[in-house]
Automatic annotation (TrEMBL), chain A:
<dbReference type="GO" id="GO:0008901">
    <property type="term" value="F:ferredoxin hydrogenase activity"/>
</dbReference>
<keyword id="KW-0001">2Fe-2S</keyword>
<feature type="domain" description="4Fe-4S ferredoxin-type">
    <location>
        <begin position="145"/>
        <end position="175"/>
    </location>
</feature>
<dbReference type="InterPro" id="IPR009016">
    <property type="entry name" value="Fe_hydrogenase"/>
</dbReference>
<dbReference type="GO" id="GO:0051539">
    <property type="term" value="F:4 iron, 4 sulfur cluster binding"/>
</dbReference>
<dbReference type="Pfam" id="PF10588">
    <property type="entry name" value="NADH-G_4Fe-4S_3"/>
</dbReference>
<protein>
    <submittedName>
        <fullName>NADH-dependent [FeFe] hydrogenase, group A6</fullName>
    </submittedName>
</protein>
<dbReference type="InterPro" id="IPR036010">
    <property type="entry name" value="2Fe-2S_ferredoxin-like_sf"/>
</dbReference>
<feature type="domain" description="2Fe-2S ferredoxin-type">
    <location>
        <begin position="2"/>
        <end position="86"/>
    </location>
</feature>
From TrEMBL, chain B:
<dbReference type="InterPro" id="IPR019575">
    <property type="entry name" value="Nuop51_4Fe4S-bd"/>
</dbReference>
<dbReference type="GO" id="GO:0046872">
    <property type="term" value="F:metal ion binding"/>
</dbReference>
<dbReference type="GO" id="GO:0051539">
    <property type="term" value="F:4 iron, 4 sulfur cluster binding"/>
</dbReference>
<dbReference type="InterPro" id="IPR037207">
    <property type="entry name" value="Nuop51_4Fe4S-bd_sf"/>
</dbReference>
<keyword id="KW-0411">Iron-sulfur</keyword>
<keyword id="KW-0408">Iron</keyword>
<feature type="domain" description="NADH-ubiquinone oxidoreductase 51kDa subunit iron-sulphur binding">
    <location>
        <begin position="2"/>
        <end position="47"/>
    </location>
</feature>
<keyword id="KW-0479">Metal-binding</keyword>
<protein>
    <submittedName>
        <fullName>NADH-ubiquinone oxidoreductase-F iron-sulfur binding region domain-containing protein</fullName>
    </submittedName>
</protein>
Amino acid sequence: MANVTLTIDGQKVTVPEGTTILKAAEKAGVKIPTLCFLEHVGLRHIKHDVGACRVCVVEVEGKKDLVSSCNTPVEEGMVIRTHTPKVIAARKLNLEMMLSDHHLDCPTCPKNGICELQAICAELNVRQIRPQGEKKDFPIDDSSPSIMRNPNKCILCQRCITACKVLQTVDALELYGNGFDAVVRPKGGLPLIETQCVACGQCALVCPTAAIVEKDDTWKVWEAIADPNKHVVVQTAPATHVTIGEAFGLPVGTDITGKMVAALKRLGFDAVFDTNWSADLTIMEEGYELIHRIKNNGVLPQFTSCSPGWIKFVEEFYPDLIPHISSCKSPQQMLGPIAKTYYAEKKGINPENIFVVSIMPCTAKKYEAARPEMNAASKYWNNPNITRDVDVVLTSRELIRMIREAGIDFANLPDEKYDPIMGEGTGAAQIFGATGGVMEAALRTAYEVVTGKTLPRLDFEDVRGMKDIKEASVNMNGVTVKVLVAHSLGAARQLMDKIRAGELKDYHFIEIMACPGGCIGGGGQPIPTTVEERELRIKGIYERDKKLPIRKSHENPEIQAIYKEFLKEPLGHKSHQLLHTHYTPRGKK
Amino acid sequence: MAEIIDFFLDYTQQNSCAECIPCRIGTKRMQEIVKKIFNGSISDRELSLLYDFAEDIGASSKCDLGKMAGKAVKFALQYCKNDIDAHIKGSCGHTIPANPGWQSIMMK
Ligand code: SF4
Ligand code: SF4
Ligand code: SF4
Ligand code: FES
């Protein structure tokens, strides 16, 4: 590729043809401010550069108008100035215009402190809002149990549309209308819950303002903890073990499991359990299900079912492929009913008083917990006074807020241990947090169960990392088991279309995670969640796996105990009652 | 002239794809100020803000629609100042009445 030489603020710089002014400036050591631009939306090859905010404008010698640097390619010999009075005035006035149509209640805004609009106004020294006039006034959409939309804070940057349409191919959002009256809204102007939205929250991760945020359920948890009649248990998802620390100044990907347990105990939970425990349980059920399908000519390839955004995606867009989905509930929904049956029995607690809280990286988990069929414990005891299997789901961001509210000095907490019965988790469960992890964990167990031999090497490097679609194969007693892994729903769609077309018949198992990078990139994770952060968190996940004394699900002593004492065998009667589920065809197709 | 600007800004608002801030919000804010010319309630501060808007929107909009809106207002402020002043004073002797034919072209 040819090179182009240009001058930026007096610095000569040479870059490949096609480079944007913004990137060339970066190379020249000049920082141009941006707001709407997003270099990678979840995955490296998805870019958002619609040029909406006009904050990144610069002056090009010989051109009368300013140009936006985020989406204008360089030209040979360009002479660019990035902070002339004309440029600075334009940037400020563009921001003032934006603010003049924005409900500015920063102190009570969910994004206060992590808002990109706030930050850019500080960076560019915006000190007044000269233009005044009519303001948009739309109702807040809180129809979804996962996502809250406040269109009055929307700056129409359209990042959410790129996330939803290009990354996830769900296409639930649209830019509707013209001029001042235009709005970014769920398709057709419906409440979000009535659209094909899968609640993945990738839109919330990229939204620079509080126009799309997670639903805040922290108050329900404060109340439950304070209620002396309630025995409040909490579970922590694998992906939260390496992400919560970011908010408290620890390096991205730091393993904060022990500190999180300590923080949860200080918040006042009665028992702190690990979703890693139920991830091991999931592997037992899902692994045996796979072996069963292979032996009995069941529907193959089998799809993983841990990611609730992915489940809704199949229900909406590929209802014909529902038989491929494993009937196993996700680890979150396995721990809930077990807490209200096995644990309740063992501890002699009335299951009516048990309140289950989850700490999840995911906004779709709120939706999952609210599904009507997720009340297995109530059915098991035939007692309508037993509440939902999982009562409240908090995202990583909500837990971070609770820890702050309680004034806990998180970074300096001592490590503490999970409570017994559902507190032990293996390395196999830990890697559930990263794309490829469920698959790798399943292979570690399936191999040993099928062959009766010890796996020579536990690490399945082929299914790790940020490549969209990955594959591997393992020989088990003469059968070559072929597996595929995809993350992001766009990548999932590619596989689903092939399956619908009758391809991929010789594959056995497919892992899909709705979010790029897997749960570490979930829609409820700390903001920002960039591709670089996703990579560092993945590294943290595998480091923790290496550190753990037990790295295979079937070797977890607490899992062995529950089968011995309660469930008897994988896919047995109680397993079916409590740990398996069914799916609902939705959508129009 | 003030009426023509008003028509033109109406046209811009109705046809703005709403992708960029200067065109989407800026032309609305300009129009809100221009309307004040008609009843003479416009202040000097607003008039100078209108000029800043015109300059900025003309220079930094994403496409020619927004750029044109900014430039048209800037042009009007520069070259038809006496007409606008007359409007503000409520004595717009030289104003060409808005032509319905012209309006229909602009509103299409
Ligand atoms: S979205 Fe940002 S700028 Fe707007 S009110 Fe919230 S914190 Fe303030
Ligand atoms: S939650 Fe996911 S599916 Fe729903 S609107 Fe946002 S990006 Fe789209
Ligand atoms: S909702 Fe957020 S991401 Fe979407 S256009 Fe509005 S401000 Fe941008
Ligand atoms: S960052 Fe370039 S137009 Fe918004």
